[in-house]
Amino acid sequence: MDKVECTVADVLMDIHNRQGVFFKADTMEIVSPMNYLKKYLPENPTDEDYQKLPTLESLNIYPLPSYEFIDHKYIMSEFTHNIWDNKEARKELFYTLRYYDYMDKFYECLKKYDLYDEYRDYASDYYHFIFREWCKKYNIKTQ
User: Fold this and answer.
1) How far apart (Å, rounded) are the C-alpha atoms in residues 53 and 9?
2) Cβ neighbours of 105 (radius 10 Å)
3) What is the pLDDT confidence band of residue 36, given thresholds at 50, 70 and 90?
4) Among the four residues 9, 17, 73, 76, which has the most C-beta atoms within 10 Å?
């Protein structure tokens, strides 16, 4: 399977409610903890085998910032507030933020008005800041 290249901002921008995303700090990649831990298990694992599994922290695997921590609505509102040249887009984007599950609707609306790339550029600093704060929390050194 080919590796997909994306930035930390791209990953954080796509973290939705009730979704956990994990980061392997020493290899700087997104991983699934269960799939990663499977390589430490024999073909037919017993309860004892599961108890002997290394911890996620010992493997340098940490949960990325949660949906609640990221506060997507803040950056989406800030971006929408700064769209001066398209009042129709502003109105529709603000309306999507009223929904409980607003993220996909917001991104669809951005694409409809050809604003998605502009939003990615605008929001990337915010998402990188969130990542740096998260790295401090777990004492993770990045390049």
Assistant:
1) 31
2) 16
3) confident
4) 76
